[in-house]
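Lesson 9: reading folded outputs for more than one chain in a single document. The general rule is that every protein is listed as its sequence immediately followed by its structure tokens, and records are never interleaved. Here is the first one.
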Amino acid sequence: MKSFRFHSYLIALLLFTVAAAEPAPAQESAFVAAVLKEAGQDLNKLNRIIEDHERLVREYPQAEFVPTVMLQLAELHERRSSLLYQKAMSVYEKELEAFDNKERPDEPIMPRISLQPTMEYCYRLLKEHPDIPFKDKVYYRLGMAHLQEGNPVRSQTFFQQLITEFPNSLINLEAHFRIGEYYFDRRDHKQAIEQYKFLLGHWDNPYFDMALYKLGWCYYNLNDYSNAITTFVYLLEDIDLVEKTDSRVIGKSKADLKSESIQYIASCYSEFGGPQAARTFFADRTAKYYTLPVLTQLAELYKKRNYYSETIETHRVILDLYPFHVDAPALYQQMVENYELDGHNEEANQIREKIVAEFGPGGAWLAQYPEGDPYRAASTLAQETLLYLGTFYQSQAQKRNQSRDYMLAIRKYEEFLAKFPTAGEAARVQYLMAECFYQQGKFKEAAEAYHRVVTEYDSSSYREEAAYNRVLCSYQHMGSEPVQDSSVVYIDEFIGGGDVLIVSVRRPSEAEVLRACNDFSRLFPESQWFDAVMLKFGEVLHELKAFAPAIAVDKKIVANGDKRPFFLLAAMNAGQCYFEAEQYAEANVWFSALAKNFPDSVQYAERALKMAGAAKFKLAENLSRENKTQESAQLLQIVAAETNDGQIRSRALFEAGLQYQKAGRDTLAAQAFEELARREPLSELADQALYRAANLREQHNEWAIAAAHYAGLAANYPRSPLAPSSFKNAANCYELLQDWLNAKRMYDALVAQYPDTADEVIECTYKSGEMSFKAGRLQDARAAYERTIAAYRTFEARGEQVDAYFSAQAQFMLGELEFEEYKTINLTSAKEIALKRKKFQDVFKAYRDALEYQIADWSTAASYRIGMALEEFVRALKESPVPKNLTGEALAAYQTKLDETARPYQERALDTYVKTVDQAHLNQIDNVWVSHCRQRMQTLMQELGYQSDSVKATTSPSAEKLNE
């Protein structure tokens, strides 16, 4: 019953619709629109409506309303196809999600819309009812159906038929638009333009704005930028058109259309004319809402393409046209960034200067925004920019080491502090300015700038570091300032206490260092740099010889505990101050405690031991000045025992030995010297110590010890200036011990060690012979004597001035050796007589050669020995065996004959003695050999029966013959 009522209602409504004078809207009839609204998304309800419509067509095929119903069925089926497609898409999306999540193995097939029923009804209408008045709508519906199914070629055929057959149809303009879209999609922009142009005169058409938009697009794609710009601007100009646009019809929102139009205008300018063309076009359109967005978009396009100079120029256009634009600070900042990206840092800095001028205090732009967020943002930018300029120039200065860049940085920092004295970065800027002075070596100005950070910015995080740097700069400035007249400085609250530091300084900078250090100690007692500053404080006071305050400062560091890094250094400095203040006892206690308590700190422990030793040295010197020499020596021996430093030990033991000598304690002195030589054999004092020890032992007749020391010095320190004398002294000690061979060894060693020292070589070679002689090694002695003579002659031949004494003595000793052999020959046979006479000639020659040196001692000795040689012949003659069987007168005659034979020899011996004594008297020589001559002269005179006044006339003819 319900179906019948709806069916009757539908027939009546259709009859009314057919009779209506006005056609329905192109897209769908009012009836269909009402039906679709009632059905909504209910596919079943829509199906029932379609069945009712189809029943009408079947039951009343010849009725007047059938064409209308068939068109409605085409529209209803289009709706039904759309709902089925949406449902299929929903299923597809779920299946696709399952596939993406690997919940199904195969990828689903994407559904396609099918409008076949719609197209069938439209085709039936064209075939069965070719003269219907709404044939244009059928063409339209077919065109849209083919378009939705993805067949644009077929679609545009029906749109073209619509235009051709129904030039006045209300759908005609949309058909032109659809054909234009067809060509547009195929990038046939010229054909598209021809279609879109049909809509230009119909601004009230829902497709007008979209056609205008696409028209601009076509011009753009054909590089016809001028027409493109004009078209897009025209679209934007008539804002009412844009505002009334139905986004459902054109497929774009109003905002999208605006945005894209602006983008395309900007894009056109990026391709055609650039920023200056845009400036010319928009110069008198600054009031238009789209001008600024177009220019902004143009800048963005250039930026994306990395066209930095064009981006900058576009920003310049914006700022020229809108000088007080609220985003001007950001635009200037973007100009800076683009200049930097383009590698133009100098131009970037020029823009930064403009930023400071425009947005800093007194700037024209800032005057337009005296408060609020724009003011704060711009002011912040000006601060940041000014700070950047300072840091930039400072960085450049550090790279290039140019004073000009430092001065530029300082000017910027000064400008910042003048314009933004209370800014949060003011303390940092003041600090950076101080750094600039420091990096230029302007330590005085740097110290003053750091001081301002400390005094003017109480809450700054830079304050502590600035105070520390002030100390460093003041100290460095002190080193460059010349010495002036002394002046007294008074500094309150010395190291944070209530005392007043009173110090005499020679330079104003010294006072500044002291104040900087003291201020730091008061303000930052917990600072990580406290100990370092106090250390510097103490050093300066130390240099100024203000030892008591320096000690107080160093003890301040020490009081913080031995875990602090400067503890030991401060402690050492305090001890040094005690030492230099001549408080040696305190210095000794201080340094000794350090060495004892911190043995693992090798560097400091060793130095402390040295300084403790030095303090004891000074105490020992004081004891020595008080004539407490033994106590002084004992203290020095303690130094030697405690120290690990060989040099100090050497010096201490040497001084101890000297002090013991002064005290008359030679044995203790010798032991100190011996300990030095034993424990520090490489010391520069070792040879002196060994020599002194040997000398002391020698003085006390400890010949063996002395000889060993001398010999050890000679062997171990051959380059020592004491070595030559040590050889001789050792030999002398061995002689005193009658150790002839060791004495000879020392003499020989000296000759070998110093072969070019003429006098030493000659003397010691002789002494070597003498030691051999005394040891009974006569052959060795003879060889040594001969070497002595040979050495003398060699050096003399070189032209060297040499003493002939030992050469003469050596020659004499050769005569002595001949004489000893001569004495052993007795006259027992004619052969021995001949041998005796021959040996006499050898003896005589040896002694005669000694006479030629004209050395008094050995000339007199040789003369004496010549006489004795003659007397020896007499002795041998008289002691020769008496022939057997001689008795009585024969024996007496034999004795008389011996006396006669001996007398010439005696007379010659007497003559020799007389001449020797006379020559000695003439030359004022008196020695043992002259005495021996006198004695023999007296004896012979008595034996020969001469008076003393007739000695010179005693020579007999036989004696004269003997002389010959």
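And here is the second record, again sequence then tokens.
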Amino acid sequence: MDKIDNVNNKITIVPIQDEIENSYLVYSLSVIVGRAIPDIRDGLKPVHRRILYSMYDQSITYDKATKKCARIVGDVLGKYHPHGDQAIYETLVRMAQPFSLRYPLVYGQGNFGSIDGDTPAAMRYTEAKLEKITEQLLGDLDKETVPFRKNFDESLDEPEVLPAQFPNILVNGAEGIAVGMTTSIPPHNLNDVIDSLLCLIDNPSITCEELLRYIKGPDFPTGGIIIADDEMKNMYLSGKGRVLLRARITIEKQEDGEAIIINDIPYQENKALIVKRIAQLARDGVIEEIANLRDESDQRGIRVLIKVKKGKKPEVVIAKLYKYTSLQKYYNANFIAIHQTEPKSYDLKEILKDYFEFRRQIFINKYNYLLRKAKDRLHILEGLLIALDNIDKVIATIRKSQDTTTAKNSLMSLFGLTKIQAEAILDMRLQKLTNLESYKIREEHQQILKEIDRIENILKDDFSINNEIKNELIKIKENFGDERKTKIISGVESEDYNLDVIKEEVVVILTKNGYVKRVSSTKFKTLNRGSKGQKGVQLEEGDTVKTILHGYTTDNLVFITSKGRAYHLMINDIPDSEFRHHGEHITSFLKLEDDENINSINIVNEFPQDSYFIFITKKGIIKKMELTLINTRKSTGINCIRLVEGDVVVDSIIMKNDEEVIIVTAFGYICRFSINLINDIGRTAMGVKGVSLSDGDYVVNMTKAEKEKHILIVSERGYAKRIPHEQIRLTNRGVKGVLCISNREKAGKILTVTNVTKDDIIVLITKKGKTFKTLVSKIKVQNRNTLGIKLLSLDSDDLLSDISKINISEDDEDNQITLIDPEE
């Protein structure tokens, strides 16, 4: 239909579909910009900004008394935000709730609701004032730093944005549902955000991924644990993603059994509803292991106690809690904010970059304002100085004048003053004519000149402006920075609580031909010294047992290959087996090359910054590398060391800088030195000489020096002894060491060394697969130059292959493990 203008009736007829489309677009934009999406600069929606500005305008600041919330709401509604009073009050309440905002912007007095979902008291009962940190959002508002606009009835001015001296959009996060889009930005720790921004200022070319060294993840006000993974990383790199968040749950041993303690809950969850849900699941038999449930939370924090029935595993209860309740959830993120009146999708670096550009402009505006004020004051002082230098003439001129206007005009014409200067002279009190006051005016004049020079230098130099911003951020960090509330752990470090992974003590067995399996540790017999081992591990013809390792199904294994590559694998991913089964070939789990073997296995559940992976090769080359460099899962493995031709990695351990390493060779030479003597290097470097070797000798393995323990030395023919650490003198790296066993022809080659206590149990396994346990306390402490005692009788064609140690459980009676015949 063509457009028709009715001039007389002032009516324009248009197609209804066009009008609906245009009106809807106007409405959508109004909701997006005017209500639902926060501004990238101060991280606030209009209603939040108006509440804070209204309280600031009324001087309801942190250092003043609180005022009734009804008064605050009324002021906001009447002056700036003509919408529902309850909507304004709900927003005010949320800004005061410590479980809603990481850094609350409003201090509330009275009932402001609870994490149990209790509603706040009516606004006529509650009172509020600004928090101290909110001053950093409003600071310099009076220095023309931000533009103002007219309010809804054009009777007052309100700021378009607050100066925001810290990136509130990241610190407190933001959420909003608009027309056709939503935003969800999680809160972060103030220290982390400021550190990342300082880094960006110093290095504008820094990548988004490099910024993640400073912002490790969200920091929610309710605490919890974040399981860091690629999805969280992508959230920062692309602006979209999700974070796996779970409650902090611990297992507590009590006199009448075990209990599970819930110490905090995921962000935006209702504790009362969670407790109600758990109770319902217990009644319905879904979590039948629960004997009792109590909410013991008080003003000190959250504590929900769940008593576990006797004989039931608390790990099963935790797994079910995470599966059937909101104690584990995903926080979905979408980084959208208003930029120059339009919604924009952001990644982490873009948020910081746009905020920094905003702060630069704030500082430029601030210093231009200060410069103008300083020049205005200088102009007046110059007039006053002229008057002081001609005080008699000035007084005479004023006395001869009939009125103020005449006096002003006379001063202007006689002394060449401006109108402003003349008025300042006329307003000057007589006490200013004293010598002391005259001196003060001249001193102020000099100070103003210096201040103008300082400000002009700052405005001319980008580096100076950046330094001003950095100093301000550092001061805010010092005044308001705090420890993280939310713990971040990698997927490797996390307790894998699910119904398929129950924490169980197991032994992992790896054979020379590459077969691996896990067996429950209770399936090993405890034998006396000198006994023959049980026939239990089934091997292929020609295969031998290579490594045996004690751990739990929830542990993460790091396999180090002969070529120096690292692979991750959860113990639970290895199928549970019986002794008579061969197990699965390691290539079913790891992508190894044809000539590559597993030569070392470590349990690595954490990746602290101060820990190192130490590698030793068969030819005695040792290398130290930061443990964090392998905190990545790659199907093709992670290269950890460059090897010379013919050399292989034989062992690896995790150590700290203040620890000592003990290296032993097949011929029985042993040396001990501090790993401080080794520089940590990158993954592709080769290493340095760790031990000097005789012809035909080679490195067997290494262990940490734990001085409160004994060193257990075991030979391939079943001889063993314990020796004190002090019998191995501390030396430099690269030496040959001292002999640790006599009569090598009888003992055979050294199989391994490890640290033990008398309360340990060792599991031994022979090349033919015979296995048994024995108590370390049955192995004598001897000197290093002795043969040792014979642990077990071996068949003439059999040798020991490996050992592993375990601690005696508190539940084991008389230091014995329950005997189970694997062939029964």
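What the second record shows: The chain has 18 helices and 43 strands.
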